[in-house]
Amino acid sequence: MYFDNAATTFPKPEPVYAAADAFFRTGAANPGRSSHRMAVGADVIIARARHSLARLLNVHRPERLVWTANGTEALNLALKGLLRPGDHAVTTALEHNAVARPLRALERQGLRLDRVPCPDGVFHLSSFLEAIRPETRLVAMTHVSNVTGAVLPIQEAAARCGEWGIPLLVDAAQSAGLLPLDAAELEGTRSCRVLLAMPGHKGLLGPPGTGALYVSEGLELVPLREGGTGSLSERDEQPETLPDRLESGTLNSVGIVGLGAAVEWLLQTGRETLHRKERALVAGLWEGLAGCPGVTLYGPPPGPERGSVVSFNLEGWEPTDLAQVLDESFDVQCRPGLHCAPWAHQSLGTLPGGTVRLSPGFFNTEAEVEAVVRAIRKVAG
Question: Considering the domain boundaries, does residue 100 fall inside one?
């Protein structure tokens, strides 16, 4: 019983396996690097995947969607491609290390950073907006906490950022493919310029080793790396146009083809269908554990604006020990510890051990939820 979908979703839709396998066996030439049929065909398939993701995110210019190796690379590209020593940035105390560590590294180089506290893991919009100043160079925030499941109000943040002409970076690791994430809508909020960073292997249901970054018009990022792009090869300077400027080197074409198939499956199935199913599973876990002796639940109660994670602790148990018992004795796979988000656990008061996190996905069942609750109740007893 796999309940670690917040780390990576499993299983994937069947078309993902089929598309990646067929491409790898019959068409995996280097896209955009040659003029022969296989290379041109690979380039067409990669472009098709880019257009599919653009449709899902309501991106009007697909070329501004850049492929990355994962969500972490997308976030690093946004943060290090935009921020410079002396700049001011604002973030939250709920961020994943994929945001926290690059920001700390940039602080050592002279970045001025305001990390807005989230007492007891609760995000307060008023405090966050007060931290944003006219001289702020970037606002970076998660869309959904990977620890508490809280959904942060990115639309309201976009309004303030648009008003003052400040770019907004959204970490969409726990929302892309599940919650509404509309690039055009965010950009339309007082002409906000946005950066949307996401992995391909979580809610988008694609293979590991894939990710994407959307860059609004008017934002120019310094590349993390320079090199071959298949374009303007007569020049020894990096191309200026997207996506080539930020996509040096051979892409993970097999993974991107699988991601494209996953996004097409999402478009056909409907994001709301997935979210409705996962919302019901989260509610079942929450309600089943709420009355369990010794269990402490973290984050907001189930609702339409909650992510698909349920974090808890059981009195008398270290999270790692409890997760091991659930795995070995009850065949329940989940994630204990700090979930690469120490700031969030500091806010919750759950350091150093963290919590046990159950994260259901679309392919889980109500029967599995009931089995997980029975297992935890049995351990508690």
Answer: yes
Same-domain status, 281 and 243: no
Residue entry with tokens 């993970």: 252
Query: What CATH number did the domain enclosing 339 receive?
Result: 3.90.1150.10
Residue of 9, 2, 3 whose CA lies nearest to 200:
9
Query: Does 161 qualify as catalytic in the annotation?
Result: no
Which domain range does residue 177 map to?
14-269
Are 301 and 242 contained in the same domain?
A: no
* Beta carbons of 148 and 121 less than 8 angstroms apart: yes
In this structure, what CATH number is given to the domain that contains residue 133? 3.40.640.10
Give ∠ CA 229-232-237 in degrees, rounded to 5: 80
Give the Cα separation of 86 and 77 in Å (integer): 18
pLDDT tens-digit series, residues 45-88: 999 999 999 999 999 999 999 999 999 999 999 999 999 999 99
Q: Whole-angstrom Cα distance, residue 92 to residue 151?
A: 13
**Residue whose pair of structure tokens reads 């290090």 in the numeric block:** 80
Q: How far is CA 23 from the centre of its chain?
A: 26
Write down the catalytic residue from 118, 161, 292, 340: 340
At 243, is the secondary structure helix, strand, or coil? coil
Q: Does residue 325 share a domain with residue 210?
A: no
pTM assigned to the model: 0.96
Contact yes or no for 1/372 (Cβ under 8 A)? yes
In this structure, what token pair is assigned to residue 320?
A: 């790692």
Report whether 377 contacts 292 (CB < 8 A).
yes
Number of independent structural domains in the chain:
2
Q: What share of the chain is helix, strand, coil (3-state, %, to 5)?
A: 40, 15, 40
| Dist. CA 244–CA 230, nearest whole Å | 8
pLDDT band of residue 166 (cuts 50, 70, 90) is very high
- 224 and 162 within one domain: yes
> What is the rounded CA–CA span in Å between residue 44 and residue 47?
5
The reply to whether 227 falls in a domain is: yes
Q: Are 137 and 88 in contact (CB under 8 A)?
A: yes
Average pLDDT value for residue range 177-198: 95
Q: Of 237, 269, 301, which residue is a domain's last?
A: 269
Diameter of the chain by CA atoms?
Answer: 71
- pLDDT higher than 80, residue 305: no
DSSP string, 155-176: HHHHHHHHHHT--EEEE-TTTT
